[in-house]
Design a protein that fits this description.
- The complex is a heterodimer.
- Chain A is of the alpha/beta class.
- Helices cover 23% and strands 35% of the residues of chain A.
- In chain A, the strands form three sheets. In chain A, strands 10-9-8-7-11-12-15 form a seven-stranded mixed sheet, with helices on both faces. In chain A, strands 1-2-5-4-3-6 form a six-stranded antiparallel beta barrel. A two-stranded antiparallel ribbon of chain A has the order 13-14.
- In chain A, a hairpin with a 2-residue loop joins strand 1 and strand 2.
- Chain A is globular, with a radius of gyration of 18 Å.
- Chain A starts with a helix and ends in a 6-residue tail after the last strand.
- The relative contact order of chain A is 0.14.
- Chain B is an alpha/beta fold.
- Chain B has one domain: Aldolase class I (TIM Barrel, Alpha-Beta Barrel).
- In chain B, 30% of the residues lie in helices and 17% in strands.
- Chain B is built from ten helices and 13 strands.
- In chain B, the strands form three sheets. In chain B, strands 3-13-12-9-8-7-6 form a seven-stranded parallel sheet. A four-stranded antiparallel sheet of chain B has the order 4-5-11-10, with no helix packed on it.
- In chain B, helix 6 crosses helix 7 and helix 8 crosses helix 9.
- Chain B is globular, with a radius of gyration of 19 Å.
- The chains are: A alpha/beta, B alpha/beta.
- At the A-B interface, loops of A face helix 1, strand 4 and strand 5 of B.
Amino acid sequence: MTAKAADDHVHSEQWAETSHCRVSAVRRFGAFTALELVAPRVAKKASPGQFVMVTVPGGGFLLRRPLSLFTVHDDRAGLLVEARGAGSERLAGLEVGETVDLAGPLGSAFPTQGVTNALLVGGGIGCAPLQYLADELAAAGANVTAAFGFRDFRAARCAGAFAIERLWVASEDGAVGRHGTVMDVLAELDAPPNTVVYACGPAPMIGAVQRWALHEGLRGYASLEAHMACGSGSCHGCVVDTTRGKLRVCSEGPVFALDEVTP
Amino acid sequence: MTGPVPAEQVSLAVELGPLRLEHPLVDASGTFDLLEYARRYRGDFFADFPYAAYVPKTVTADARTGNPAPRVTETPAGMINAIGLENPGIDAWIGGLPEWAALRRPVIVSVGGNSPDQYAAVVRALEAHLASAPQATAPCIEGYELNVSCPNVASGLQIGADPAATAAVVGACRAETTRFVLAKLTPNVSDVTVAARAAVEAGADGLSLVNTFKAMVLDRETLRPFLGNRTGGLCGPAIKPIALRMVAEVAQALPGVPLVGMGGVMSGLDALEFIACGATAVGVGAANFTGFEAPSRILAELRAELAARGFASPAAARGIALGA
């Protein structure tokens, strides 16, 4: 791809067009890699909770990988990658100066208007969109508390990638933070009645947070993950059950009202 | 073969039966949602629609919720899906037609079902609607693609794997419409020309091939089937050589029958290969999942590939792989 062609893409300004983005920084935390990309188009249009479809470089991988926006600063977009399979291993192995193609920002965003107290609940790689959300909420003057749960020491190293002032961590093997799940952290928190809950993580965690929020009388939002093919609403590969019927995580989601998901 | 021709002198237009297409590329059913694109596109997507005809996601007589998750995953050089024909049913589908009435391309409606009656009910309902619908409240529906890859309720087999069942579906739909009718053939047979011939003899005007290959992927931790439906349809570059062989076999067996060739088309050269094997139009499926730009890129590449080989049109290249 020539510089001219790359510029043409930047100027066509379509919602799902592909941007060619240089990796500007890499930080590694065990199985997790925090990538920073020069992505002015994505950064300009993004909101917390949205995601990008990332092409795995080098050929051999047909489908793009959906990744939440982890951070957005100026013209930079951050992604947090967990090496799970061959494709995510390749993405996690990216080095500064390499280029990746990404399309976005895609999907729905976390509503943040008028929020005074926010409680961010994350599990594993599901914590990724909550950094960007915490940054936006804090910039808007909200009080942000985060509670993250990880499986074990290896996964909990991911917590080092986050910069959130009030962040509580739990690990199921007790190696880092509180011994237990993120629900054990929530049980010990004193959430003010106007707290808005934002949850992202595995389905069992979303279900537990949903029940807890209902019991506490708190409203909130959940960001779901699903296996995706197109990422743009075409293939119906990523549908989830909701109180509104089957909805596409890529198109109607990934952010849903906490009380409408049925994890 | 002659020398190269200037790319701008290549005329990409093709005639698929009675349909005049600006170029050979159409979307493979279920891989490109016009309304999703139009809603978020900056500009008039109904005018800028990149394919020469639109083949929407398959519609059935009754609403279907589709298969349990997970429905998709990547495979070596391809992907597998088991969506399960999720769709709102023909009545709701017809109700949505005004939303995309402004599309300035011919539409080929993909029809599914589990029996000839179910297929025919869809065609009948749509024909009845179009006969009475005010102008400009519906897009330009010019044909049907009968997706015979659904399981047959009576036999449990894919309808397309049974030539008699395929003929019954085509015949039932043929009786309901004078529009262009394609039968979309399944590759899950030992001889694709048998069902192809049965479809044409029952009244199909043309054939689309191939649909996906029935396949299975295991969860690598549990060693259980990964997809919620256990099995799914394999597509992508992995299937292209088999699809090319099948298109060539049908083109040879049924010369003159218009073919829409598809299976793993990722580039303009891939599209040209299907044309060389006898296809008039070429379906693009999984490539739509690789990027917003895929259709326009593949079309530009097809033009360049034709020009480089001295073909002034797709028709000039059609079928050249079939000779000695």
